[in-house]
């Protein structure tokens, strides 16, 4: 298929945009697809399994902190966060979506979750609003972004954070 000739300003009249810009975008897209072809997704209870240190570039933790917390308490959640840190490569990212504390109360009243050990959630001392402080002060992460700060678009009002394991590796891991 033959491309339409560019007009005097170098803009393709059928597609729009400069030819050089489109060519560069195609190059970026090819690179992204090549990178994604190396991505592996796993479904497992990763917190209890073995993991090679510094083996992940990104770990996504979406809507799971509450369940780790309710099933294993503060100790399990802290251990999970430390494992995430040690599993990330230096400069690696944690994408974290903690559920709000109010959702803990509703979770323990649902029939299918009655077996969670921490039905008395007042025993839990680490709260979702304290996760960032724990992750930065005790584990060693740095906060890169708060992607949902003040945004309640589409009725999604949970925080979504991106945290990074620093390149220097000076974590506390207490």
TrEMBL record:
- A Pfam family cross-referenced in the UniProt record is Bin3
CDD domains reported in the protein's UniProt record:
AdoMet_MTases
What Gene3D superfamilies does the annotation carry? Vaccinia Virus protein VP39
Per UniProt, the keywords (alphabetical) are: Methyltransferase, S-adenosyl-L-methionine, Transferase
What GO terms in the biological process aspect are recorded for it?
methylation; snRNA modification
Record flagged with keyword Lyase: no
Q: What class of enzyme is it?
A: transferase
Molecular function via GO: O-methyltransferase activity; RNA methyltransferase activity; snRNA binding
Q: Which residues form the Bin3-type SAM domain?
A: 1-168
What are its E.C. numbers?
A: 2.1.1.-
Q: Give the similarity note.
A: Belongs to the methyltransferase superfamily.
What name has this protein been given in UniProt? RNA methyltransferase
User: What is the native source organism of this protein?
Assistant: Chlamydomonas eustigma
